[in-house]
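Handout, section B. The chain below has 482 residues.
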Amino acid sequence: MSDVPAPVERLRERFGLDASALERALADALARGADYADVFFEHTTQDAVSLEEGLVKSGDRHVSQGLGVRAHAGARQGYAHTDDVSLEGLRLAAGAARAVAERAGGARAVALGRAARPAHDLYAVEVAPTDVPAREKIALLEAIDAHARRSDPRVAQVMASVVCQSRHVLVAASDGTLVGDVQPLVRLQVQIVADDGRGRREVGAQGAGGRVELSAWLDPARWRPVVDEAVRLALLNLEARPCPAGAMTVVLGPGWPGILLHEAVGHGLEGDFNRKGTSAFAGRIGERVAAPGVTVIDDGTLPGRRGSLNVDDEGTPTRRTVLIEDGILVGYLQDRLNARLMGMEPTGNGRRESYAHMPLPRMTNTFMLAGEEEPEDILRSVERGLYAVSFGGGQVDITSGKFVFSASEAYRIEDGRLAAPVKGATLIGHGPDVLTRVSRIGRDLALDPGIGTCGKEGQGVPVGVGLPTIRVDGLTVGGTDG
């Protein structure tokens, strides 16, 4: 058996480049005074099948591959990428990256270390999701359609899709890093349109997935709850009333509402914004930024989760990073460049959408730790307010920290109990401020079902979020009723 770890060996065979070729390319990128250089190879296969109106409306399969060479010179980065995975393509990309990052300095030799196994084994998938025959994916969607239509006569339309990906990456860097990884990804999405027969139509959507075998989702015991939840939400929205507006106490439910934490707070804790001083959290390490009891974690090592990785896109092992501990800011999320410039350690958060993009500090799975209170007690503590269970779209301004989020499932709270469902609710606030308004934290931490995609500087990467039930006092709610 070879001493070279399987992912690296497979990638070397696929790309046809040996260690000496990589060392020459890295030395070439460093030749004019750069501090650091790396080469990123990627080969990704993705397929998708979608169903609408009882018919498979589309199916596609894409294969892409390429390489990118990067050089750091101080805060400046040179980056060049190509889909020509060859010695010539590698040589040209290294020369282009060197030219951008050029400064005074001489050439340096590079010696890659022994190929390393990834630090973790978080997605031990025997059959790649993209290797599952299309007929099995079509059968899954047809079963979803039939189950949804049987569940309630008000179901008027069913839309479902399954997207599978298998991503092979290899990273070689001037510090000796040589590591590869094979990353599976599955996402199932269901959207239901319900019609009350009186001209009102509403939509409910639910999804699930992760870095798992697709076979797990072929089992009806796994996909039926996803469909049932989408149907429930569509029918619930048929009964929803306009949401009241104004400042009020808001209770956020567990799981997917963690997207508010991700957007309103998480981006502001990424290293690049803090190095440049553009984040509301810049220079505040050691200061109180949240209420006592609030602890925020980013953890890329959770097995099978959508946001998890064995290594990030710079070859750094992912890890569990504490960002806020008991209300005190204790850390940032770092890639290699920003960590070096800030005198900190990389945290395994250097991520990129593809070989055509430079890595940026990005979140993996970001969540707030559980407290000790029963969720029912938190609801009972609110005389009048809003209970937000799920969110749709949202926007945040990293510099100011201001955010706006729309709730896709929410209820009025009256006398400590859930009342009518409402629609049109938006939460408006300031990221650093909202965490100081957390007054109660539940014991029911939950992670999202595996549907998150985060956008930053035009790049999208899969992420996870999580939250226990929390009470937030004095949050502004925008609505359609008053």
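Note. The mean pLDDT is 92. Compare this with the example in section A.
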